Amino acid sequence: MNSPSNTTNSAVKIALVSLGSNLALGDLSPKELVLSAMDGLRQISIDSHGSSLYVTEPLDCPPGSADFINAAIQLQVEASTTALGLLALLQQIETDFGRQRGGERNQARTLDIDLISFDNQLLESTVLTLPHPRAAQRKFVLMPLAQISPNTVLPGQSSSIVQLLDRLPDQDNVQLLA
User: Fold this and answer.
1) Is the pLDDT score of 76 beyond 90?
2) What is the distance between the alpha carbons of residues 80 and 113, in angstroms, rounded to a whole number?
3) What pLDDT does 79 receive?
4) What pLDDT, on the 0 to 100 scale, is given for residue 11?
5) What residue segments make up the domains of the chain, in order of their start?
6) Within 13 A of 90's CA, how many CA atoms are on the CB side?
7) Which of 178, 148, 149, 150 lies closest to 166 in space, CA to CA?
8) CA distance 138 to 143
């Protein structure tokens, strides 16, 4: 597979997506949910490159929250795909995997899929901000992204993903899943 970069040809657009789960769905564990969602994302892409899985201690979650399983995937999608169109697909996948949106922030969830960047676009709307506004401060987002796209510079940043990761404090416990 080719090395990820910030350049794309006109036939495809590149999306970076972050996934996480800390709540089982029936017999499916959070690990199985993330892996299954990654398989689903591969079905909507021309080509993809996924990270390993990471275990992350809950950050700003209600007391007693289970650890998260996190990953990232780079998708090559058709040039006709829009950021809002891809967001709608991601939200439908979340719903298909039992995601229930409530009023409480950072609650346990069967699946959370975030569109981190889309074809180097800067976008701010009521439903989507690109790049994801907190991606550069989240170790559980940057570690998997650094594995699959280390030299990518998110729009609005001057440092690569791996450089952003190196600047974060070690206080967030994110570990490669053995």
Assistant:
1) yes
2) 21
3) 95
4) 86
5) 12-176
6) 25
7) 150
8) 9
Reduce the secondary structure of 24-93 to three states and give it as a string: CECCECHHHHHHHHHHHHHHCCCEEEECCCEEECCCCCCCCCCCEEEEEEEEEEECCCCHHHHHHHHHHH
pLDDT in tens, 95-113: 999 887 666 666 778 999 9
Q: What's the CATH class of domain 12-176? A: alpha beta
pLDDT of 90 reads 96
Give the CA count within 13 Å in the CB-facing half-sphere of 149. 28
Enzyme catalytic residues: 99, 109, 112, 114
CA pair distance 178, 175, nearest whole angstrom: 9
Which tokens belong to 92? 């439908």
Query: What local confidence, expressed as pLDDT, does residue 140 receive?
Result: 94
Say yes or no to pLDDT of 7 above 80.
Answer: no
Dihedral sign of CA atoms 130, 146, 175, 40 in order: positive
Residue 71 and residue 176: Cα distance in Å, rounded? 10
Q: What is the pTM of this model?
A: 0.90
Assess contact for 135 and 141: CB atoms under 8 A.
yes
pLDDT surpasses 60 at 153 = yes
d(CA 70, CA 22): 9
